[in-house]
UniProtKB/TrEMBL annotation:
Belongs to the TRAFAC class TrmE-Era-EngA-EngB-Septin-like GTPase superfamily. EngB GTPase family. The lineage of its organism: Bacteria, Bacillati, Bacillota, Clostridia, Lachnospirales. Gene3D superfamilies: P-loop containing nucleotide triphosphate hydrolases. Necessary for normal cell division and for the maintenance of normal septation. One of its GO terms (cellular component) is cytosol. This is Probable GTP-binding protein EngB. It comes from Agathobacter rectalis.
């Protein structure tokens, strides 16, 4: 996906009605601090449109990010923040449930799990609950940069085992630092959100953009380098440079003599 525009279009609080959007949506759920805002920013190529929380669990809203006037990334409220009181906890449950039931455009739900840790009871509950609602959550294993490459496969397996995922469930390691997994996640989103015709048009657009970029690179490379132009003037090297070079040369020849 070539990102042309992003816009936080709708923010839903507990009492707001879920918008009846024109374009398809994909939603992201996960416990507070798992890296949801960081993922959404990375997908949108933005540093901080989705706020990266200094106070986790504080914002209990559903945020709809309009991308390219073509689709929405939906940031669901983070769950399982230890200090949240019972009432707030109940609210996020209600809000997420309400959204999953109400949205007519929701195409897929992504569940974020920290790759370092076993899924918590809340994670398991969330996963089971989404499956019961008829969704097949796609798992994103966040903060993959925190592990060695050699550890990743084992941790993915643990996540699958502990969640008892349905066969064929995709688990994608992702890092907002290295951007590992970003392209894979976008490819998946594109295929879930757009029809064949749109996908083809997008592919062609991406191809054209890549081609234009490499053409610009080639053009820049064929331009004479600044230093070259200076050389072409045929002027002798600056006096000081010449002195420095001569000095170095004579030093070298003295050393060579010594060696002999
Ligand atoms: N090393 C590392 N840190 C991350 C990554 N993603 C998020 N974080 C950090 O984890 C904390 C919570 O991130 P945030 O995106 O606000 O999580 P949210 O509460 O799920 O929205 C922040 O301090 C982030 O900088 C990642 O991929 N790698
Ligand atoms: Mg957040």
């Amino acid at each position: 996906m070539v990102i042309k525009s992003v816009n936080l279009e709708t923010v839903c609080g507990i009492t707001s009605t879920i918008p009846d959007n024109e374009y398809n949506e994909v939603a992201f759920a996960g416990k507070s601090n798992v890296g949801k805002s960081s993922l959404i920013n990375a997908l949108m190529n933005r540093k901080s449109l989705a706020r990266i929380s200094s106070q986790p669990g504080k914002t209990q809203t559903i945020n709809f990010y309009n991308v390219n006037d073509a689709m929405y990334l939906v940031d669901l409220p983070g769950y399982g923040y230890a200090n949240a009181n019972i009432e707030i906890k109940a609210k996020w449950g209600q809000m997420i449930e309400n959204y999953l039931h109400t949205s007519k455009k929701l195409q897929a739900v992504f569940l974020l799990i920290d790759i370092r840790h076993e899924p918590s009871d809340n994670d398991i509950m969330m996963y089971d609950w989404m499956v019961n609602q008829g969704f097949a959550p796609i798992i994103i294993a966040t903060k993959s940069d925190k592990l060695k490459k050699s550890q990743i496969a084992a941790h993915i397996k643990t996540i699958k085992d502990v969640l008892h995922v349905k066969p064929g469930t995709v688990v994608i390691p992702f890092s907002s630092m290295s951007k590992e997994g970003r392209d894979e996640i976008w490819n998946l989103i594109d295929s879930l959100v757009f029809d064949e015709e749109t996908l083809l048009a997008m592919k062609q657009e991406e191809e054209a953009k890549r081609e234009a970029k490499s053409a610009a690179k080639r053009a820049a490379a064929s331009q004479p380098h600044k230093k070259e132009r200076w050389k072409k003037t045929g002027k002798p090297v600056a006096k000081k440079t010449k002195e420095r070079r001569d000095k170095a040369k004579s030093k070298k020849s003295v050393n060579n003599h010594k060696k002999k």
